[in-house]
Design brief:
alpha+beta; elongated; 143 residues; single chain; 35% helix
Length: 143
């Protein structure tokens, strides 16, 4: 019976520490939620070549630089092809080649100003770039 108060005290302390740990964990989760929302990422695109047979196509690196030059952080980049339209082959015809970049959602307005659009509005598939000078995947690495 002499040990009963000590056991009771140990039990109370264990329950109190457990409750404190749960409360601290819940507060940490709540604090992390707004940061995750601020980091929402979206894909944007632009046409790689406006018209076939004309040398005005843009490389993936040039496209990435166009965004980073205006302060938009690019997390990932890929070449792609629009699949929601049919593109006939012929000089002067539009091309279905596109350039895709993963950016923060809060940078969309800046990307729109320099000719990019939200990729969720089109159908596409990611693919390899048609020239060797462009890199796919994340900046500074090749796929």
């Amino acid at each position: 019976m002499k040990h009963t108060p000590l056991l009771l005290l140990a039990l109370v302390l264990a329950v109190g520490v457990g409750a404190f740990a749960q409360r601290a964990e819940k507060q940490a989760e709540q604090a992390a939620e707004p940061a995750e929302e601020a980091e929402e990422l979206i894909w944007v695109f632009r046409h790689r070549r406006i018209k076939q047979c004309f040398g005005d196509d843009m490389s993936l690196d040039e496209s990435r630089a166009k965004l980073t030059d205006i302060g938009v952080a690019v997390h990932e980049s890929h070449c792609g092809l629009r699949t929601d339209k049919v593109f006939t082959s012929g000089c002067g015809e539009p091309s279905g080649d596109i350039l895709l970049h993963l950016i923060r959602a809060n940078s969309l307005d800046a990307a729109l100003l320099v000719g990019y659009g939200p990729a969720e509005q089109i159908e596409y598939q990611k693919g390899q770039c048609s020239d060797d000078s462009a890199e796919a995947a994340t900046p500074g690495t090749s796929q």
